[in-house]
Amino acid sequence: MDRFHRQPTFDTRTSRTCAFCQQIDLDFARRSPLDQLVKDSDTAGGHITEEGYLRHRIAELKILKVKSDLSFWKSARQAA
Q: Does the pLDDT of residue 1 top 80, yes or no?
């Protein structure tokens, strides 16, 4: 097999699980092991796979939505 048709490989020797995703994502245990790993930081860009990156971003967006909903209800309560 030549180098242009190889399957992508991931170096997992220095990887660790993403603490952010592990704490926030309820389906974290169901992810594939590679989707749970980050290279160096607990950010979306630190994930080894694209699927891990996307799931991290979705978790961040869910948190932002909850925060905006809370701020809406707080301001509505103060106006009343």
A: no
